[in-house]
């Protein structure tokens, strides 16, 4: 059994949904050494999240942002947690909806993503700053 782990900081990104698949692969090239296994990507934040979805058409990522902004609006007067700005509590809710990790099978030294799948960083804050990830891969 081989096990690899790498912690990385992603560059600061604007609010929205951003493809980070290549950054994951560049951070942990040892994935190539695994024929069958798993890769887990975990984000160490509560106001950003991860998901897997469409990697070809950028309008999908625009529509994701539009949907989540409608589903979890800012400036709701019922929010009590509002001292970090109007985007903070909605960011926590969006992150809870999407999740803090993704797991992808490794097959023949590659992430076994579908043809049109990519890993998204879901940045829910206007100024979220650098985001930290822990990437762990294991297998044979």
From TrEMBL:
Pfam families: YjbQ. Gene3D superfamilies: YjbQ-like. InterPro entries: UPF0047_YjbQ-like, YjbQ-like_sf. SUPFAM superfamilies: YjbQ-like. Belongs to the UPF0047 family. This is Secondary thiamine-phosphate synthase. It comes from Pedobacter yonginense. The lineage of its organism: Bacteria, Pseudomonadati, Bacteroidota, Sphingobacteriia, Sphingobacteriales.
């Amino acid at each position: 059994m081989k096990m690899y782990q790498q912690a990385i900081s992603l560059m600061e990104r604007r609010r929205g949904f951003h493809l980070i698949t290549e950054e994951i692969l560049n951070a942990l090239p040892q994935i190539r050494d695994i024929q069958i296994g798993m890769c887990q990507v975990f984000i160490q934040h509560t106001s950003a999240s991860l998901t897997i979805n469409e990697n070809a058409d950028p309008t999908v990522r625009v529509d994701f942002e539009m949907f989540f902004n409608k589903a979890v609006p800012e400036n709701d007067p019922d929010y009590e947690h509002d001292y970090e700005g109007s985007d903070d509590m909605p960011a926590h809710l969006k992150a809870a909806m999407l999740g803090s990790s993704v797991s992808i099978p490794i097959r023949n030294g590659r992430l076994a993503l579908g043809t049109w799948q990519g890993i998204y960083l879901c940045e829910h804050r206007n100024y979220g700053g650098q985001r930290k990830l822990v990437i762990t891969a294991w297998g044979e």
